[in-house]
Write a structure and sequence with these properties.
Distance between the termini of chain B: 47 Å
Radius of gyration of chain B: 22 Å
Oligomer: heterotrimer
CATH superfamily of one domain in chain A: Phenylacetic acid degradation B
Number of strands of chain B: 2
Structural class of chain B: mainly alpha
Order of helices and strands of chain B: HHHHHHHHHHEEHHH
Distance between the termini of chain A: 41 Å
Chains: A alpha+beta (119), B mainly alpha (318), C mainly alpha (249)
CATH topology of one domain in chain A: Ubiquitin-like (UB roll)
Structural class of chain A: alpha+beta
CATH class of one domain in chain A: Alpha Beta
Largest interface: B-C, 47 and 48 residues
Number of strands of chain A: 5
Shape of chain B: globular
Helix content of chain B: 55-70%
Number of helices of chain B: 13
Helix content of chain A: 10-25%
Chain lengths: 119, 318, 249
């Protein structure tokens, strides 16, 4: 049995033709951060984009200036991109397709008499 | 899997309108084309701040100053979205910017024209942003996911840019004789360069074919240009101004406006660095970057110092 | 001209001139994210200026508008502090100028929330969150640059040398401020000065920067006697309104 190969968002995939973020930190290049914004209370934080910042405080402030100029948010999360682990698209089949056969997880699988059909 | 198989899977995705995401396999040429196009687009946003930024300090009213500041700042934001999209293809922002400064990477030639009067700000908003939007709306459906998403965000924000430009010109067109003349003069100078923004004719464009097949581009240069002419030729009537093209007229058969020949010699001259402002623009960008180096370095060094301090204060594990 | 109008113009001029200065960075910032940040501050300050001018214009009456006040007064009629008209210099100088002003403005606006003039209090209430953010942003940058590299530290020292003489004026009440202070409309600058000193000492300590002592205080701005800088600023700012009198934009 082979376990899904998981590699970090910042890693270079083994076959070099794919794309990936190569985080090369030079002396003056600030690290890359991913920004997640909650657009209003009650909703989830959603990935908005990324930016560069020297530290977390600055990343929050930059995110505020860059991604909430038009009242798009009420809360911000930032995380350095290199700490995000992403699943490998090559393993999409084994990761996600097994769910396709489990149609009994969906309410529409069950046919009920009209009287209770709004259950 | 063989390269041929991978290429087939890739092209199937494109044909089925499935977006390509950063970690998906992609042909090297697709990656390079996207890097070239997205970074050019990003550079255009950033260099594009300069001709308009030129008038922030002289804006004729506080309201116009606020609008212009907000608009130019939006362009910085758009540059940032695009640089980020570019970074998902494995090239850092610093590398991308270095390519701009070394002259290896290009940006839209339109920004090598000078903004001489206040009316130019209106004309840039209406014509230059108007032309850019045609391209950008098309790109919201481009095949590379991060690029498409950046474009969606940009298009949402850009919608006020063209409107503010047109409104600024509308004020001039209803103003004093001097203001009307200023308005017409700006339109005269910006009309042809904005047509050139769509790039060479389809028969001469080197990148279009493959880009269309990969759905990076979805409309040809000439299609977009025609769409733009049709739009502007109607809008100019509201301004009561004219476009500087004696050959411009409605063609009932084609259901499009015919228009005169573009001076491609001028286009290539500006692309090759002989516009009025090529040097000025690039120097300004280089200067900002070079003079910012100590700032970027200091913030980086401070962040590391700070991290060490926090680690020293943390009680030892175990 | 009543003391209140003079005071409003003083507050408005401070924000307009600093906005004008900060906006010079737009397109030329040290990194894209900070280009956006400083432009945001410039926009906030411009918005504050417009609110204050508009209020002053209603008190002046007649043809006065935010634009006539910003574009048609001359050098000697501007009442901004000398600090805000000083050149951007490098990023260190811009940061220090912003910090010194924001720290002062924040303390001042906290007092003005209780101003007996309800309209002024309302304008201040709208602006104070912006000011709190400017203060936070500029404080962090003072610390970053002070405690960053040798070069950034040296540049901060130079900025202090350039600007410190202009900080004292913030706390010296002009005649119109004194009048309004008695009426409970303007704030007690002595109290603000103490808070400014205390907070600044703390931030400078964290930034490993020395707090200058016994520096000669340059004044005059609040009375319309400026440095040579202001004339050039106004020349650019007012060019269009001067060249096309009466035109609408």
């Amino acid at each position: 049995m082979t376990l899904p190969r998981i590699f970090r968002y910042g890693d270079i995939p083994e076959d070099k033709s794919g794309a990936a973020i190569i985080s090369k930190e030079t002396k003056t290049d600030w690290p890359l951060w991913e920004v997640f914004i909650r657009s209003k209370q009650g909703l989830d934080h959603k990935h908005a984009g990324s930016l560069h910042a020297a530290d977390a405080k600055m990343a929050i402030e930059n995110a505020r200036d860059v991604y909430t100029r038009r009242m798009e948010g009420v809360s911000i999360w930032v995380v350095e991109s290199k700490y995000i682990t992403a699943s490998n698209p090559e393993e999409a089949g084994e990761l996600y397709e097994p769910a396709e056969s489990k149609i009994y997880r969906h309410p529409t699988f069950y046919e009920l008499p009209d009287e209770v059909n709004h259950m | 899997m063989s390269i041929q198989d991978l290429e087939k899977i890739f092209q199937d995705k494109i044909d089925n309108e499935i977006k390509i995401e950063p970690k998906d396999w992609m042909p090297e040429a697709y990656r390079k084309t996207n890097i070239r196009q997205i970074s050019q687009h990003a550079h255009s946003e950033i260099v594009g701040m300069l001709p308009e930024g030129n008038w922030i300090s002289r804006a004729p009213s506080l309201k116009r100053k606020a609008i212009l500041l907000a608009k130019v700042q939006d362009e910085a934001g758009h540059g940032l979205y695009l640089y980020s999209a570019c970074e998902t293809l494995g090239i850092s922002r610093e590398e991308t910017i270095n390519d701009l400064h070394s002259g290896k990477a290009k940006y839209s030639s339109i920004f090598n024209y000078p903004t001489l009067t206040w009316a130019d700000i209106g004309a840039v908003g209406w014509l230059v942003d108007g032309a850019a939007i045609m391209n950008q709306v098309m790109l919201t459906r481009t095949s590379y996911g991060p690029y498409a998403r950046a474009m969606v965000r940009i298009c949402k924000e850009e919608s006020f840019h063209q409107r503010q430009g047109f409104e600024a010109l509308l004020m001039l067109s209803r103003g004093t004789d001097e203001q009307k003349a200023m308005c017409q003069d700006a339109i005269n100078r910006w009309w042809w360069p904005s047509l050139m923004m769509f790039g060479p004719r389809d028969s001469e464009s080197s990148n279009s074919d493959q880009s269309m097949k990969w759905k990076i581009k979805r409309k040809s240069n000439d299609e977009l240009r025609q769409q733009f002419v049709d739009m502007i030729a109607e809008q100019i009537k509201v301004l009561g101004m004219t476009l500087p093209d004696p050959d411009l007229k409605w063609n009932a058969e084609r259901k499009h406006y015919d228009f005169g020949a573009i001076n491609w010699d001028e286009f290539w001259a500006v692309v090759k660095g002989n516009g009025k402002c090529n040097k000025l623009r690039l120097e300004a960008r280089k200067k900002a970057w070079d003079e910012g180096e100590w700032v970027r370095e200091a913030a980086g060094v401070y962040a590391k110092k700070r991290l060490r301090k926090v680690e020293l204060l943390r009680p030892a594990a175990g | 001209m009543t003391p209140l109008i003079k005071y409003l113009l003083h507050l408005a001029d401070n924000t307009l001139i600093l906005s004008q200065r900060n906006s010079e960075w737009c397109g030329h910032g040290p990194v894209l994210e900070q280009d956006i940040a400083i432009t945001n501050i410039s926009l906030d300050l411009l918005g504050q200026a417009r609110n204050l001018y508009s209020y002053a214009a209603t008190l002046i009456g007649g043809e006065a508008t935010e634009d006539s006040l910003a574009y048609l007064r001359k050098e000697r009629e501007f009442r901004n502090c000398l600090l805000v008209e000083q050149p951007n210099g490098d990023w260190a100088q811009t940061i220090l100028r912003q910090y010194c002003f924001s720290q002062y403005q924040y303390a001042l606006y906290q007092e003005l929330l209780n101003s007996k003039d309800p309209q002024l209090a309302a304008i201040v209430e709208k602006s104070i969150k912006e000011v709190a953010y400017h203060l936070r942003w500029s404080s962090e940058w003072v610390i970053r640059l002070g405690d960053g590299t040798e070069e950034s530290h040296r540049r901060m020292l130079k900025a202090i040398e350039e600007l410190w003489a202009y900080t004292g004026e913030l706390f010296e009440a002009a005649d119109y401020e004194k009048d309004l202070q008695q009426e409970g409309i303007a704030a007690d600058l002595e109290k603000i000065k103490q808070e400014w000193q205390l907070k600044t000492e703390a931030i400078f300590a964290e930034a490993t920067l020395p707090m200058p002592r016994n520096v000669f205080v340059q004044t005059g701005g609040k009375q319309g006697i400026h440095t040579e800088q202001l004339g050039f600023i106004l020349t650019e700012l007012q060019y269009m309104q001067r060249a096309y009198p009466g035109a609408k934009w």
